[in-house]
Design brief:
about 70% helix; disordered N terminus; transmembrane helix; transmembrane; 13 helices; about 5% strand; membrane; 3-stranded antiparallel β-sheet; mainly alpha; DUF6350; about 500 residues
Length: about 500
Amino acid sequence: MNSSGQSIASPLVRGVLAAVITLGTAVALTVIPALAAQVAGTRSSATALDAILIGLNVLVLGHGGGITLSTGVIDGTVTLTPLGLMALLMLVCAIAMRRVGHVLELVDVETGLRPRALGDAGSALGSYTVVYAIGVGVLAALGRSGDASPMIVPAVISGALVALVGGLTGVLWSLARRPTATHPGVRVLDLLPMPFDAVARAVLLAMTGLVGVGALAATGQLLFGIRSAGALFDELGPGIVGGIVLVLLQLALLPLLMVWALVILLGGTVTMGTGTAYSLAGVESGVMPALPMLAALPQPGEAPGWAVLLMALPLIPLVLGAVRLVRDTRHLQRRDRVIAWVAYPLVTTVAVLLLAGLATGGIGDGRLLHLGPRMGTLLLPLLLLTVGATAAVLAIMATPLIPWVRASVASLRERVETAEQKERAEKGATAEQDSVQTQGATADAETGEDVETVGDTGTVEAEETVEVAETGASTDEAPEQPVEIPEDEVSRPADR
């Protein structure tokens, strides 16, 4: 009986203790900077109690809740969530529940999940979420004052969501084990059934890349306008401690700018007050709050025509996620592959829309009533990018397109080589025929010259023969003349 009670109470108690410790850490993260700002603010009339109340109000905003202000400067509801603070609070929750998971020893090195591991983890996570949500509601009630009134019900709901998401992440984190020489490692996503583990890996890869693209774009813009931001910071003159608090505030708001930059790159429009619009088509800006990081934003005007090409930046992680999905599901059956192919763009689209929704809010009832992405302008281009990237990757990697293209290229290359060989053969035959004809013509020419030489010789000989004949004929035709002998030559021998 005692053992059973201890086994039931242990996860519940550990979840409650983890929630209390997490709440204390969260209060310290917001109240201590507020107290530091109050001490450093020499021109401020706020007391330490006011600083604590401000810290509690910021804590409610960090969980995604809302507060109602009536300060005269800002009147109305503030619902803009500092995503940096929310991410930090989720990290604290994850670390706390990871420790609980390790203490409960949910995973055995040799056998894997121990018996009742999931039940103990669920009990600890449930008690953690309930206590944490109630604690956030209590802190919201304690943070009420004449100028600010946190909304309790939204604070409880948002606190429960932060505790649930962060705590579940911590529990899954505690299940992971690194591989050793004797035991294989345990991956958290491998615990999901197929093909959803492949979808989770692909979506995680795509979302990480998209957040990285937004961070890169926001950081680049801040660096580009750092002179304007520095000038406004010097004009405010917050001092050392006040400057540190101002920097921490901007760091808490920096993830908002990252998400807004991502929305713009995805083809959506971001509003930073009434009459303002930031998109790839251009900037319509107005009077902005005196925050140094906002001074680094682009100036009003139309964007160049090539700005639309920037949509290729978020397309890269979407393609990489689709490639990872196709490779991880290649060995599965067709039904599972189709489920994964359909789930990937839908889950990615929903995740981006949730992230953009968290980055949407308002400050008061004035010009800053609407801040963040216009969801209507984001949905269509986001669907086109996610579905288009997935379809393109599937057309290339999951269909016979690549083998067909390779076969077509090989066939075309073979035909070209055959045609070239045939052409070379024809050229060789033509060249050989021309060579033979040339040699024949040369031989005929040489034979003609010999004949002509012989003919000329015969002609000369014939002419000489004719001349001799003519000479003989002329000799025969001439009459013989009598030879006269002198008388002295006839009678001279007698004298001797």
